[in-house]
Amino acid sequence: MIVKVKEPLPEEYDFFKEGQILYTYLHLAADRVQAEALLAKKVKAVAYETITDSNGHLPCLTPMSEIAGRLAAQEGAKYLEKPFGGRGVLLGGVPGVKRGNVVIIGGGIVGMNACKMVVGLGANVTILDIAADRLAYYDDIFGSQVTTLYSNRTNILNAIKEADLVIGAVLIPGAAAPKLVLKDDLKLMKKASVIVDVAIDQGGCFETSHATYHDDPTYVVNDVVHYCVANMPGAVSLTSTLALTSNTLRYGLDIANKGLETALKDDKNIRNGLNVYEGKCTNQAVAKSLGIEYSDIEF
């Protein structure tokens, strides 16, 4: 299915042309304009975030998830400070004063790295996830340092009531993030508590989230500070570049040396990264999120 978009395209898409190979982060499920532009221009686009490895993991997404998770704790702690609009809470507390409460929704790579940081700071930490085996892993690793809860509506609402900092770390590969905390739910939260939505690149897991930038990273809804910077790892660009290129280079070289079609045929992991190809959407999660036709292309 070829998707037509309104002309002219936004300026940032002027360079798209038929037959062009695009190899980068795409996050199309949360960016309909870009998706439709790629389809209309018949670009061949491979997304870092859906390339897999032999274990079904996401090797090109992992380093950025690790960095974003650690930054989420760092930025959350900063914006809890009173001069930045927060409650004035020190996550680790001090003798005689309660520790801060941190809730992490999602126990994947982002959640694990956020957890390492906030546990290290000495906070009270609650992890929510839908996978029992993942929660068991947290229990094995952190023991009594964390509370593990099955992620459902009731547990999420109860957890955010006590939270000083909530980190959204939800990921459904390729798809838009589900909205797990609604606008009205924020009324349950403490005034000047902080949300960090790491899922913002996939649309965010809080209903009130919208993408912000490093030069103006926060806004307030219902007295809750929102930090929703897209591309959080850009704040630590040297670390991020070294971590990312160590994983993406080998796939990029395969595409360059073999040609895209041969690389797709030879390596199913690169094939899993293909999101659009000559006017067709080739990723099921993206297609479902955007409500467009999915095409299973053979090479």
Describe the structure.
- The chain has 299 residues and is an alpha/beta fold.
- The chain has two domains: 11-56 and 246-290, 3-Layer(aba) Sandwich (Rossmann fold), CATH 3.40.50.720; 62-235, Rossmann fold (3-Layer(aba) Sandwich).
- The protein has nine helices and eleven strands.
- It has helices at 32-40, 62-79, 109-121, 132-142, 153-162, 237-258, 260-266, 268-273, 284-290, and strands at residues 21-24, 44-47, 101-105, 124-129, 146-150, 165-168, 194-197, 218-221, 224-227, 274-277, 280-281.
- The strands form two sheets. The protein has a seven-stranded mixed sheet, with helices on both faces.
- Helix 1 links the parallel strand 1 and strand 2.
- Helix 2 packs parallel to helix 3 (109-121) and helix 6 packs across helix 7 (260-266).
- The protein is elongated.
- It starts with 20 loop residues before the first strand and ends in a 9-residue tail after the last helix.
- The model has no long low-confidence stretch (mean pLDDT 94).
